[in-house]
């Protein structure tokens, strides 16, 4: 095949449905000739994910709960059985108890703090550990983060500290794996309506606020995140690692957010 990803093989984790950021990235990579495998969480999502993977001609689908080392080991053993090496991995996974994505951060429970950190932060390191073993010729590893790591956003709560820890993990992993030619980066996406973001209190308000206050005066799409991922995962990004690339219509540079959202 031809294209920026011709001859490259990789894993996309976190596909839930056609609104998933993982889907926007998968489409951008497939259009440039990448060979893809997907992992999804649990049987319930299988019937959603199967037809999507089929659209991209990808038979490689793995059920994986990133909260379990055994499940991650099985995923990478399954991949290894098909492919000797891989070139990239996309980690588009996050989780926190919906009941704590409203109200105040100060009320976070220990149990949900632990679970949020485990699924949304540690899993990326656990994935990098295993993926890097399959990247003898170098590679590119990508995760997804949000501005709530840098500044306080309404209702993002414990996901804020979790994304801050994730962004810092990107830097440590970039240093550890850089000598092996493996790049590690994050995309900080602006708010996009997905299954995960729908769990955040007043998410519609956040979308509207971003639309009115970002320099581009609009929200971003899954496709735009896909294009940025293509840059970081292809040879175009060969000089970039440890980076947090904002794909947020510029929202993160605006200090004084002046325009309020009218009745929504
Ligand atoms: P999504 O619901 O489509 O994807 C989240 C995925 O995480 C799902 O596929 C879900 O199955 C998976 N997941 C949760 N717990 C898991 C576990 N234990 N094991 C394996 N998979 C698990 O939503 P999305 O918005 O596409 O989220 C993808 C990533 O993008 C997340 O890290 C999210 O925080 C990040 N992000 C989203 C936005 C946004 O506004 N949507 C903005 C910035 C960053």
Automatic annotation (TrEMBL):
Keywords: Fatty acid biosynthesis, Fatty acid metabolism, Lipid biosynthesis, Lipid metabolism, NAD, Oxidoreductase
Enzyme class name: oxidoreductase
Xref: Pfam families: adh_short_C2
CDD domains given in the database record: ENR_SDR (cd05372)
Gene3D superfamilies in the record: Enoyl acyl carrier protein reductase (1.10.8.400), NAD(P)-binding Rossmann-like Domain (3.40.50.720)
Keyword Membrane carried by entry: no
Enzymatic reactions: a 2,3-saturated acyl-[ACP] + NAD(+) = a (2E)-enoyl-[ACP] + NADH + H(+)
This enzyme's EC code(s): 1.3.1.9
InterPro entries: Enoyl-ACP_Rdtase_NADH, NAD(P)-bd_dom_sf, SDR_fam
Pathway this chain belongs to: Lipid metabolism; fatty acid biosynthesis
Family from the record: Belongs to the short-chain dehydrogenases/reductases (SDR) family. FabI subfamily.
Protein name: Enoyl-[acyl-carrier-protein] reductase [NADH]
Gene that produces this protein: fabI
């Amino acid at each position: 095949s031809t294209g920026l990803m011709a001859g490259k093989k990789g894993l996309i984790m976190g596909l839930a449905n056609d609104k998933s950021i993982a889907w926007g990235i998968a489409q951008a990579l497939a259009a440039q000739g990448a060979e893809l495998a997907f992992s999804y969480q649990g049987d319930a999502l299988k019937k959603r994910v199967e037809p999507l993977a089929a659209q991209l001609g990808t038979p490689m689908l793995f059920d994986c709960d990133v909260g379990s080392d055994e499940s991650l080991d099985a995923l990478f053993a399954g991949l290894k059985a098909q492919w000797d090496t891989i070139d990239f991995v996309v980690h588009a996974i996050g989780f926190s108890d919906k009941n704590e994505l409203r109200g105040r951060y100060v009320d976070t429970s220990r149990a949900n703090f632990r679970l949020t950190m485990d699924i949304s932060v540690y899993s990326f390191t656990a994935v990098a550990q295993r993926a890097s073993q399959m990247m003898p010729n170098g590679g590119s590893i990508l995760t997804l983060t949000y501005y709530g790591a840098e500044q306080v956003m309404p209702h993002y709560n414990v996901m804020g500290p979790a994304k801050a820890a994730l962004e810092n993990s990107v830097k440590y992993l970039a240093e550890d794996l850089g000598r092996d030619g493996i790049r590690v980066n994050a995309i900080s996406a602006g708010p996009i309506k997905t299954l995960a973001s729908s769990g955040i209190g007043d998410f519609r308000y956040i979308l509207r606020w971003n639309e009115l206050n970002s320099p581009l005066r609009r929200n971003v799409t899954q496709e735009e995140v896909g294009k940025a991922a293509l840059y970081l995962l292809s040879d175009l990004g060969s000089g970039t690692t440890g980076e947090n690339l904002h794909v947020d219509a510029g929202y993160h540079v605006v200090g004084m957010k002046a325009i309020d959202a009218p009745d929504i």
